[in-house]
Amino acid sequence: MKKLSIVSLLVFLLVMAILPHLLDPRWQTVAVTFLVFSVVALSQDIVLGKAGMFNMGQAMFFGMGAYVTAILNSHFGWPIMATIPVAIIAPVLVGIVLAAPIVHLRGDYLLVVTIGFNIVFVQVLINNLGGVTGGPNGIFGIDPLRLFGFELSSQVAIYYYAFAVLLLTLAIMINLDKSKVGRALHYLREDPLAAESIGINTRLYKIFAFGLGAGIAGLAGSVFATQYSAVSPEAFEFIQSVLFFSIVLVGGSSIPGVLIGVFVMFVLPEIFREFSTWRFFVFGFAMILTMILRPRGIWPATFGKIPKFLIKEPKNGG
Amino acid sequence: METFFQQLANGLTIGSMFALVALGYTMVYGVMRLINFAHGDMVAASAFVGLTVYTQVMGQASSLFAVIAIFMLTAGLMACVGVVLERVAYRPLRTAPRLSAVVSALGASLVIQNGIMLIWGPRMRIFPELVPQHYWHFGGVVISLIQVLILVISLVLMVALYLFIEKTRIGAAVRASSIDQDAARLMGINVNNIIALIFIIGSSLGAIGGLFIGLYYRGITFNMGWQYGLYAFIAAILGGIGNIPGAMLGGMLLGLFSAFISGYVSSTWADAFTFMLLIFILIVRPTGLLGERVAEKV
C-alpha cells in the first residue's frame, strides 16, 4: 500500500510535469487554476483536516496574498519577486493575530467567526479601504514574474511556477505528517483534552496550524494574481471558502482526495461548460450523497464491503 | 432625534424578520446540534414561492383573504420542503461525524439556492405589493402600515411559539429532546417526530419571514438566502443558540444594531460592523445573552 501510494504520486507528478505541452492555451489556463486551487485546498486541509479546526474563511488568506502582490506591485512599483515574501508573511501575521483569541472556541462557533472574517475582508476590499484595493473592480495590470532576467508571462511558464508552489506545498504536507508538529496536530484533532494532558501546548499548535495554512494560501494568492494579472473581490468571496471547506471534507482530508475534489469542483465545470448553470445544483446533491454514503470522505477508497468487526474505525472530529 | 426614532422603527421591523428566521436556526441547533445552512435559502425560496402562489394560484388578487391564503399556502409548502430536507439530507447523518452533517447542510443550501435560480431565473424579481401603501407621519418620522403589520404579526407568532414550547406537553417534549436526546428517547418521546415538528415550525416561520422580506424590500434574488440566513444565525448566537426566547431577543437587538449603524455610521459598512459584533460576542460571551453557562463537551 505504501509503495503503491509512492508510485502513484510519482506518476501523478510526471503527468503534471509534461501536461502543459499537451494542452492548448485555454486548457493551460485551466490547468494553472487547478494547481493554484489545489494549493489553497491543501492549506485548508492543514487547518481543517490536520488540526481539526472548523475554518470557513480560507479564501480570505488566499485573497490577502493576491491583494498584497497586486497592491505592492501596482501602487508601489515593487517587482513581483519582492512581493512574494510579503504575500506569505502578511497572511501569516493576520492569521496568527485573528486566530489567537478564537482558537479555543468550539467547532461551530469557530466556523461562524471565520465566516465573519471572510465577509468583513471582502467588504473592506469593496469599500476600498485606504484607497488601495480598487473597490469592486479590483486591480488590473499586474506585472508578470521576472526571474533571472526572464519574464514568465506565458501560460506554460506560469504553469511551472504554480507547479513548483504545489510541489513545495506537497513537501510541507508530507513532512508535516512525519514531524513532531504533525503528530501533535493529529492528537489535537483526535482528542484535544488528552493532547493537553500529555503536555501538548494545544493553543500554540492550533495557532501554528492557522498561520501555516494562511501562509500557504497567501503564496497561492500571489500566484493567482500574477496568472490573471488582475485581482477583484468576488474571487475571494465566502462561497469560495465554502467550496474549499467542502473539498477537504469530501476528499476525506487526504492528498489524493483533496486533489480529486479540486478537479471535480473546478476542472469538470470547464469540461461541461454548456451545463454551467447546473454546476452548483449538481454539486450540492453530490455533497449530500457523498456524505450519506461515505461520511468520512471519498478517499481512501475501499472496494467492496469489509465486515464491520474487521475495521478499526478511526474517530474524526467530535 | 428624528433619526433615532426612524431607525428605531426600521430596526424593530428588520429585527422581527431576523427573529422569525433565527427561530428556525436555534430550534434545529438546539435539538440536532447542527447549523442548518439550508435554512436561509429556504427563506429565500419562500419569497419566490409566495410570488408564484400570488400570480398562478391567486390570480394576482390582493384582498385580505387572498393575502392570508398566500401566507398559509407558502408556509405549508415550505414546511413540507423542510420535512423532506431533514429526511433526505440530515437524518441519514445523525450518527455520523459532525462535519459530515455540516457538508450535507452546505450541499442542501447549494441545491436549494441554485434550484431557485433554475426555476425563477438569476435576475432580481419584484415581489407584489400585497399590502396597501399607507404611511403615518409623526413629526419627521415615517412609519408604514407594512412595518406595523410585520412587527405585530411577528410578535404574535413569537408569543404563540413561546407559549407552545413552555406550556404544552409537546413543547415539553421539544425541550426535553434539546437537553438530552437519549434521555428523552428513554422517556418515551419519539425524537424523530420532534425533529420533524421542529422542521415544520422552523420552516413555516422562516417562510413567513421570507414573505415579509419580499413585502418589505420588494426586490428578491435567488442568492439572498445566505445574507439573511447569516444575519439570522448571528441573531441566534447573540441570544444564545438553542434558546428560543434568546433568538427572539437576539433578532430584535441585531435589527436595531444594524439599523442604527446604517443610520448613524454608514450603510456600506453595516455588514462589517455586524460581523465585528458577532466576533466580539463570541470572544467575550460565547453562550450568548440568554444562554446558560454549561460545561462544554469539546
**Elements of chain A, N to C (H/E):** HHHHHEEEHHHHEHHH
Strand content of chain B: under 5%
**Rg on CA atoms of chain A, Å:** 20 Å
Strand order of the largest sheet of chain B: 1-4
How does this model look, in words?
The complex is a heterodimer of chains A (318) and B (298). Chain A is 68% helix and 3% strand. With 318 residues, chain A is mainly alpha-helical. Chain A has a domain at 23-237. In chain A, the strands form 2 sheets. A two-stranded antiparallel ribbon of chain A has the order 1-4. A two-stranded antiparallel ribbon of chain A has the order 2-3. In chain A, α6 packs across α7 (180-190) and α10 (238-250) crosses α11. The longest helix of chain A is centred in the C-terminal third of the chain and has 27 residues, at 202-228. Chain A is globular and about 50 Å long. The mean pLDDT of chain A is 88. Chain B is mainly α. Chain B has a single domain (2-284), classed as Orthogonal Bundle (ABC transporter involved in vitamin B12 uptake, BtuC). Chain B is 74% helix and 4% strand. Chain B has a two-stranded antiparallel sheet. A two-stranded antiparallel sheet of chain B has the order 2-3. In chain B, α1 runs antiparallel to α8 (191-217), α1 (2-32) crosses α9 (224-239) and α9 crosses α10 (244-265). The mean pLDDT of chain B is 91.
